[in-house]
Specification:
binds nicotinamide-adenine-dinucleotide; single chain; globular; 7-stranded parallel sheet; Rossmann fold; 7 helices; alpha/beta; about 15% strand
């Protein structure tokens, strides 16, 4: 452990699986006190207990980021770990419901926009009393801590066949990120986004019968071929690749960086 996040309190949504889980493991290794949220209790509990058995500090709560009351409860409990202050908010919860535009139901559109975009908005708004308010207090003594918000966009924000709902939600996250960066800069709160390409998680596994997420087998093969022929020498991107960039935005290494969107796509043509 190099202690990049020593004593910082970090809230992470979507921490039960994939990128959120990898981020939780890495932040814990770097000394953060973690408050983890996920819709699904079992993977959330597993993440918390793995961190604890490795000697880290973590608590968790089931939270649906589309529900304002859940978000408020989660942020308050997260702040309780830090005497009323949250240092890092990492909004990772997200979902896909892919369909081409002319077959996309309003339900699938609203569902995806709600989880990805509204969920991120609700978490940031609910964290305001624990990020903005402590900063106001600190400003009286002239020394405001650096706090950070990290959102997850996607290379799909630039448009992707079959993802009109997802692409719109992830493009919205860029606007949200840049606005928070401007509104909260005076409180020394940075707000940046990561735009992953294709990362191996539940969302990019070959779609199973009866599941709403995942991708067709042929698409997965095509992505692997593209990576091999045009990307960095690697099979596919892993959750840890994104977690490391989240660590940069969460740590004081990026204390003078805000409103940025960093692509993490291994140089693969088609995603960058
Ligand atoms: N995997 C990729 O290739 C990729 C690429 C670009 C962006 N992303 C984004 O990265 C983020 C993490 O995705 P992942 O690939 O790790 O997927 P994942 O499915 O492995 O993990 C997402 C987690 O979010 C949780 N979640 C879903 N809806 C929620 C809700 N309403 N409230 C709280 N938690 C909820 C899930 O239970 C799950 O544990 C998402 O925002 C996703 O859009 C992923």
């Amino acid at each position: 452990m190099s202690g990049l996040l020593k004593d910082k309190v970090a809230v992470i949504t979507g921490a039960g699986r994939g990128i959120g889980q990898a981020t939780a493991f890495l932040f814990a290794k770097e000394g953060a006190k973690l408050f983890l949220c996920d819709l699904d209790k079992k993977p959330l509990d597993e993440t918390v207990s793995k961190i604890k058995s490795a000697g880290g500090i973590a608590e968790g709560i089931v939270c649906d980021v589309t529900k304002k009351e859940d978000c408020k409860k989660a942020m308050k409990a997260g702040a309780d770990l830090g005497n009323g202050s949250i240092d890092i908010l990492t909004n990772i919860a997200g979902i896909t419901r892919d369909k081409i535009l002319h077959t996309m139901s309003l339900e699938d559109w609203n569902f995806t926009l709600n989880v990805n975009l509204t969920g991120t908005f609700l978490c940031i708004q609910s964290a305001a009393p624990y990020m903005r308010d402590p900063a106001k207090e600190e400003s009286k003594s002239g020394k405001i801590k650096t706090r950070s918000i990290i959102n997850i966009s996607s290379t799909s924000a630039r448009g992707n066949i079959g993802q009109v709902n997802y692409a719109s939600s992830k493009a919205g996250i860029i606007g949200l990120t840049k606005t928070v960066a401007k509104e909260w800069a005076r409180f020394n709160i940075t707000c940046n986004a990561i735009a992953p390409g294709v990362i191996e998680t539940r969302l990019t596994q070959v779609r199973k019968e009866g599941e709403d997420f995942g991708i067709p087998e042929e698409q997965k093969q095509m992505i692997k071929m593209l990576q091999k022929q045009t990307g960095l020498a690697r099979e596919l991107g892993q959750p840890e690749d994104v977690a490391k960039v989240a660590l940069f935005f969460a740590s004081d290494l990026s204390a003078y960086v805000t409103g940025q969107v960093l692509t993490v796509a291994g140089g693969m043509i088609g995603t960058i």
